[in-house]
Amino acid sequence: MQSCVSDTGQATSVVTARGRAGSGKLWVHNAKKGRLGCTSNPQTPLLNTPMNYGRLCVCGLLCDVCCRAQPPLIDSSLRFLNGQNQLFQRELRLSGVHHNNNGRLYVRSDAEQVAAYVTTPSSPAMEDNHEAPRLSVKCASGPAPEVKRVCLFLYDSVFCARPVQSWQLVIHAVEQVNLRTTLGQRLASSLVLRVDKSRNVQCFSSHLPQLSVSPKAPFRAAQGVANEVGVTFQPSFVGNEWVTVNAVDVDRRELVRTWLVHAQANTPVVSKAFEISVAVGKPSNKRVSYTNDYPVTKVFYLETDRPDLIHFKDKVMELSPGEKQHIGLKFFAVAQPGMTEMLVFINDADGSNEATFVIKAVYEKLESEA
After folding, report:
1. Who contacts 115 (Cβ-Cβ below 8 Å, separation ≥6)?
2. pLDDT tens, residue by residue, 190-224
3. CA–CA gap between residue 116 and residue 150 (Å, rounded)
4. Lowest-confidence segment of 9-18, 70-79, 121-130, 248-257 by average pLDDT
5. CA atoms of 87 and 170, how far apart (whole Å)
6. For 268, which of 83, 90, 273, 356 could close a Cys bridge (C-beta 3.0–4.6 Å)?
7. Coil, helix or strand at residue 323
8. Are strands 353-364 and 272-279 parallel, antiparallel or unpaired?
9. Closest listed residue to residue 349, CA positions, set 298, 297, 284, 287
10. How many CA atoms lie within 13 A of 354 on its CB side?
11. Region 276-297: what's the mean pLDDT?
12. Structure letter (DSSP) for residue 222
């Protein structure tokens, strides 16, 4: 609140400017005459700053105004994990946003280093299907464990007078770890945990059993040393997966550290392919052969990507040099005819893939049953 000063330097009236963060409109009030008028600035709406100073000319009066922005009213608040010192990019669906007749939405941010824009439906088909507009946000995250809070204000007018929605994005910068392996192959790695004081810590994975942690039980994390947390990645499908690993203080029930693991599984190289006819409606037993090409005795372990359709008679094989042995396959009963592909992985004791078989199971009614 400031006094309006006339040309003679005397105080003529007292005015008050009120505005909410995210709004580009200031209403100016006079103690005696009530509301005098308002002003709007489409380029610089009030942001979440302690004070905004300016000079207004309302009803013939030249007013120096100090506006204290009120906290914004947040409609939606979202939290994200992003790799430290990496670009944060997200596309958010805006549902339930009421806008003007031309269908345009405008967005402003309380941070300068944030790029945000709204994409509206561009085709009549998308409008007929009531396709919601999308909010695209892009900004840089800092080093871990920095937390960045970004407020976004959506407007249906170019003057940005009143926001129709207010969003808050909380971006947690965490350490990112990249793991890459082949489907059916196990990859072991480790994470380094450093604590400010000795704690009893337990680690948890968001995607079990694809990515498991060890030790599973709580352990004592010592201060000032690098405490190692083992992770094992064994994918069940080809593609990318974002996995969160959290270290929690079990005594105080507080989060100590978070890692963002980018796990990628590639397509394995197929060694052999088999097509097997399986009777519909009942379990079946089949077998395929495998030969140990090594000049030493080796132990092999069998895995599959479809444990719901097939399992093995023996999951462990010990073969002498050059020995050939049959792999017993047990197919579960399937009610409908069709064809399904499944993979059989033959791994060594370290989890490295030695061979991959493709089993094309053709489920059909056999002639002997017809």
Report:
1. 137, 138, 139
2. 999 999 999 999 999 999 989 999 999 999 999 98
3. 11
4. 9-18
5. 14
6. 356
7. coil
8. parallel
9. 298
10. 18
11. 93
12. P
Residue in 41, 8, 333 with CA at minimum distance from that of residue 17: 41
**Contacts (Cβ under 8 Å, ≥6 apart) of 126:** none
- What CA–CA distance (Å, rounded) separates 275 from 235? 25
Q: Please check the confidence at residue 29 and state whether its pLDDT lies above 50.
A: no
Q: Are 58 and 28 in contact (CB under 8 A)?
A: yes
* pLDDT value, residue 39: 47
pLDDT of residue 66: 67
**Which amino acid would we find at residue 351?**
G
Lowest mean pLDDT among 40-54, 98-112, 234-248, 347-361: 40-54
**C-beta pairs of 199-203 under 8 Å, 24+ apart in sequence:** 199/249, 199/251, 199/252, 199/256, 200/249, 200/250, 200/251, 201/227, 201/247, 201/248, 201/249, 201/250, 201/256, 202/247, 202/248, 202/250, 203/229, 203/245, 203/246, 203/247, 203/248
Pull the structure tokens for residue 131.
């396709």
First to last CA, the chain: 93
- C-alpha–C-alpha distance, residues 360 and 111, integer Å: 56
CA neighbours within 13 Å on the CB side: how many for 268? Answer: 28
Our CA dihedral for 193, 187, 261, 222, rounded to 10 degrees, sits at: -10
CA distances from 368 to 72, 279, 286, 353, 364 (A): 75, 10, 17, 39, 11
Q: Mapping DSSP to helix (H, G, I), strand (E, B) and coil, where does residue 234 land? A: coil
Q: What percentage of the chain carries pLDDT values higher than 70?
A: 76
Q: To the nearest whole percent, how much of the chain has pLDDT over 90?
A: 59
Residue 224: count other Cβ atoms within 10 Å of its Cβ: 9
Torsions phi, psi of 99, nearest 5?
Answer: -125, 180
Residue 365, class by beta-carbon neighbours within 10 Å (0-12 exposed, 13-18 middle, 19+ buried)?
Answer: exposed
| pLDDT value at residue 102 | 63
Lowest mean pLDDT among 76-90, 288-302, 355-369: 355-369
